[in-house]
Design a protein that fits this description.
Elements: E1 2-7, H1 11-23, E2 27-33, H2 37-47, E3 51-53, H3 56-60, E4 66-69, H4 76-85, E5 89-93, H5 100-112, E6 118-121, H6 128-138, E7 145-155, H7 159-165, H8 172-176, H9 178-188, E8 192-200, H10 206-209, E9 215-222, E10 227-236, E11 241-248, E12 252-255, E13 260-268, E14 271-276, H11 280-283, H12 285-301, H13 309-328, E15 332-333
Parallel strand pairs: 1-2, 1-4, 2-3, 4-5, 5-6, 7-10
Antiparallel strand pairs: 7-11, 8-9, 8-15, 9-10, 11-12, 13-14
Helix pairs in contact: 1-12, 4-5, 5-13, 9-13
Bound molecules: nicotinamide-adenine-dinucleotide (NAD).
Length: about 325
C-alpha cells in the first residue's frame, strides 16, 4: 500500500481526498494538511484520516510515501521541492506554478530526484473521451492533426465567484486556459511559436473594471504551420461547456460538443432536452480518479507518467505569452 498525505482540502482537495481514501487501488490516505480546522475535522470524521496537520513541513516528517498537493496555486512549487527533498513521491494539481521562475525551480527539484515519481494533474488527458481521442489520433484515424479548437466556458451560475476573484486571478488566460493549452500541445504534438489574443465583455462590466474580460480568445501558430484556437469564458447559460475539436488531414474528432450530463433525453414542453454538466467536479469525476490511479500505479510499478513537469512549465510559458499578447493587442513570438 502506498501511504499518501494530502495537502489542501478545499473544493478540489476534498474530491481527491475522497478518491484516495476509497477509490484508488493500492493507496491509503493516512495524513491530511490544511490551514482550515473544519477541513481537518472533515478528514478525520468522514475519511477516517489518522493524522492531521496545519503545517506542511510537519506532515512531511510523518510516515508517508507520497504527497498530493492541492493547495493554493502559489504554494505548489515550494511544496513540490520540499516533498521531493523529503523523499516523497509527488502528485501536484495544475498549474505547476504561478511564474515561469517557480516552474523552473520545480523542474530542478524533479531532476534532483529521478527515482521519485512526479505527476502533474492535467486530468483531462485521463478523461476516457480525451484518452480515446488520443488513441484514434495515434491509430491514424484523422491523418495528421493540424488544428485544435479548445473551448472552456464556466457556467453563468458561478460568475459571481469569478467576478470576486478577477482582480487577483492573473487574467482570464492564466486563470482558465491552462487545461486547453495543455490539450492543444498534447493533440498537436507540438508547441506554438506565435500567439494573438483578444477578449470581449458584454454582460458583466466588473471584468473590464478588473482589466480583464469575461471572454478570451487566442490563436496560435506552430512551426509546422499547425494552428491552435482557444476560447475561454465565464458565462455559459447551459452549464459547464468544455468542448475540443481536433481537425486532421483525413477527418475530425469532436469531444463533447454537447456537454451532456448523462444519456437521458427529456421530452417535454421545452422540446427534446439534454441537460448539461454543472461544473468541473461533475464533468471530470472519472478523470480525477483515473489520474490518481495512474500516479499510484507508476509508484508501484517503478514507471514515470507521460505528463511531466516540463508540460507544466510549457503551459505556463504559453499562458503568460497569451496574456501579454492580449494586453498589447499584437501577435507575439513565444519564448521558451
Ligand atoms: N484540475 C482541475 O480541474 C482543478 C479544478 C479546481 C482547482 N484546481 C487547482 O487545485 C488547487 C486548489 O484549488 P481549490 O479550488 O480546491 O482551492 P481552495 O481555495 O478551495 O482550497 C485551498 C486549500 O489549500 C489549503 N492551504 C492553503 N494554504 C495552505 C498551507 N500553507 N498549508 C497547507 N494547506 C494550505 C487550504 O486550507 C485549502 O484546503 C489550485 O491550485 C487550483 O488551481 C484544479
Amino acid at each position: 500500500m502506498v501511504k499518501v498525505g494530502i495537502a489542501g482540502l478545499g473544493r478540489l482537495g476534498k474530491v481527491h481526498a475522497k478518491n484516495i481514501s476509497v477509490g484508488i487501488d493500492g493507496a491509503q490516505l493516512v495524513a491530511a494538511c490544511s490551514i482550515v480546522p473544519a477541513e481537518l475535522e472533515f478528514a478525520k470524521e468522514n475519511l477516517k484520516v489518522e493524522q492531521t496537520f496545519t503545517d506542511f513541513d510537519e506532515m512531511l516528517k510523518s510516515d508517508i510515501d507520497a504527497v498530493a498537493i492541492v493547495t493554493t496555486s502559489g504554494l505548489h512549487c515550494g511544496q513540490i521541492a520540499k516533498a521531493l527533498d523529503a523523499g516523497k513521491h509527488v502528485f501536484c494539481e495544475k498549474p505547476l506554478g504561478v511564474t515561469v521562475e517557480e516552474c523552473k525551480m520545480a523542474e530542478a527539484a524533479v531532476e534532483r530526484h529521478p527515482e521519485k515519481v512526479f505527476f502533474l494533474g492535467f486530468m483531462r488527458r485521463f478523461d476516457p473521451s480525451y484518452a480515446y481521442a488520443m488513441e484514434k489520433i495515434k491509430a491514424g484515424v484523422i491523418g495528421k492533426p493540424y488544428m485544435v479548437k479548445a473551448t472552456g466556458i464556466d457556467p453563468e451560475a458561478l460568475v459571481q465567484g469569478a467576478i470576486k476573484f478577477a482582480p487577483t486571478s492573473g487574467g482570464i488566460f492564466i486563470d482558465m486556459a491552462i487545461h486547453d493549452i495543455d490539450l492543444m500541445r498534447w493533440f498537436l504534438g507540438e508547441d506554438p511559436i506565435e500567439v494573438y489574443a483578444t477578449g470581449a465583455t458584454f454582460k458583466h462590466p466588473e471584468f473590464k473594471a478588473a482589466n480583464d474580460d469575461e471572454t478570451g480568445v487566442a490563436m496560435y501558430k506552430c512551426a509546422s504551420g499547425a494552428i491552435g484556437f482557444v476560447h475561454v469564458g465565464r458565462t455559459a447559460p447551459h452549464g459547464y461547456h468544455v468542448e475540443t475539436e481536433i481537425v486532421g488531414t483525413e477527418g475530425t474528432l469532436r469531444i463533447s460538443p454537447v456537454p451532456e450530463k448523462n444519456l437521458c433525453m427529456i421530452y417535454d414542453t421545452h422540446g427534446a432536452v439534454k441537460e448539461c454538466v454543472g461544473g468541473f467536479p461533475e464533468r471530470f469525476a472519472q478523470a480525477y480518479q483515473l489520474e490518481l490511479q495512474e500516479f499510484i500505479n507508476c509508484i508501484r510499478e517503478g514507471r514515470k507518467p507521460n505528463v511531466t513537469v516540463y508540460d507544466g512549465t510549457k503551459s505556463t510559458q504559453i499562458a503568460f505569452a497569451t496574456t501579454k499578447a492580449y494586453q498589447t493587442g499584437k501577435p507575439l513570438a513565444i519564448e521558451y
